[in-house]
Amino acid sequence: MIELKTPAEIERMHVTGRFVAEVLTEVGRIADVGVNLLDLEHHVRGMIERRGAESCYWDYSPSFGRGPFRNVICLSVNDAVLHGLPHDYTLRDGDVLSADIAVGIDGWVADSARTIIVGTPAEEDLRIIRATEEALEAAIEVARPGNRLGDISAAIWEVAHDYGYPVNTEFGGHGIGRTMHEGPHVANKGRAGRGLMLRPGLTLALEPWLARTTDRIVYDPDGWTIRSADGSRTAHSEHTVAITEDAPLVLTRRESETPATRPTGRLSGRNA
Ligand code: MG
Ligand code: MG
Fold first, then answer.
1. Which of 227, 230, 231, 241 is CA-nearest to residue 74?
2. H-only helix segments in the chain
3. What was the pLDDT predicted at 270?
4. For residue 180, how far is its CA from the centre of ligand 2 (angstroms)?
5. What average pLDDT does the segment 145-163 reach?
6. By three-state DSSP, how is residue 80 classified?
7. DSSP code, position 57
8. How many angstroms does the Cα of residue 9 sit away from the middle of ligand 2?
């Protein structure tokens, strides 16, 4: 079901979104070489409890997971990209860490993810992170009344294609509001001008994710952590966005975040 939200309901989601942004800012601040993923999990758990928020992941039991998820954040390192199960792992120099979190406050949910590098960054890791951030901003830019869902999917794919990264279509974005996953599904690849007409009040979690050299994925034995099938490194960027009469409203924008823009002529792809 696709539920359009009133401006007042969107403002309540924005309250949640600001908290999600704070959590991801904090994760970026404390994630460093020598920090254990379980320390991050417990730190975030404390923030959620103090805020009186509710984790959307705790007890999450989709068909693919092995038993309910018993953590409040997804932490995916290097070739892991989605649903990374926090475990006893100490971050090393140059690790790529994707953090993804969704919580509810007073019944309204927001969902966001970011990818960071701890320690010394490798150029190719910075590049794929940049690609997901630019793809996300391109998707947000077309999240406007009168456009269609396919415009969002096409915008994401076009950036990935220009960078030369393949796109997996098994996992993508989604509607969001009273629960984490609502209709519609937002594929990270699609045809412009096709699909659901975008209307004010539609709230979407847009989430491009990429692996450097494959569009195929494999699952860890834990049934949760999803990795690139060839072990290549990955990145994931996500925001919860409200379509309004005016400009798209990013409900999970971090205070220190500068939206990624696409300088023309920088890429060697077809649009360069
Ligand atoms: Mg998410
Ligand atoms: Mg999501």
1. 227
2. 7-30, 37-51, 123-141, 149-163
3. 41
4. 7
5. 98
6. strand
7. S
8. 19
Closest-lying ligand to the alpha carbon of 176? Answer: 2
pTM over 0.85: yes
DSSP-derived pairing of the beta strands 96-105 and 74-77:
antiparallel
What does CATH list as the number for 7-250?
Answer: 3.90.230.10
Secondary structure letter of residue 254 according to DSSP: -
The DSSP annotation for 223-251 comes to S--EEETT---EEE-BEEEE--SSS-EET
Q: Rounded to the nearest whole angstrom, what is the distance from the C-alpha of residue 100 to the centroid of ligand 1?
A: 5
Separation of alpha carbons 128 and 123, rounded Å: 9
Count Cα neighbours of 186 within 13 Å in the Cβ-side half-sphere.
Answer: 34
**Residues near 177 by Cβ (< 8 Å), separated by ≥ 6?**
3, 5, 9, 13, 108, 109, 203
Show me where the domains of the chain are located: 7-250
Q: How far apart are the CA of 148 and the centre of ligand 1, in A?
A: 22
Output the CA 159–ligand 2 centroid distance in Å: 19
Over 70: is that where the pLDDT of 263 sits? no
Interatomic CA distance for residues 43 and 58, integer angstroms: 15
Gap from CA of 240 to ligand 2 centroid (Å): 8
At 272 the pLDDT is 32
**CA 123–ligand 2 middle distance (angstroms):** 27
Angle at which helices 149-163 and 123-141 cross, to 10°:
160
Please report which helix (H) or strand (E) contains residue 62, including its range.
Answer: none
How many Cβ atoms are within 10 Å of 113's Cβ, its own excluded? 28
Q: How far is the CA of 112 from the centre of ligand 2 (A)?
A: 7
Cα 270 to averaged position of ligand 1 atoms, centre (Å): 30
Classified as helix, coil or strand, 134 is: helix
Write the DSSP symbol of residue 90: B
Is the pLDDT reported for residue 103 higher than 50?
yes
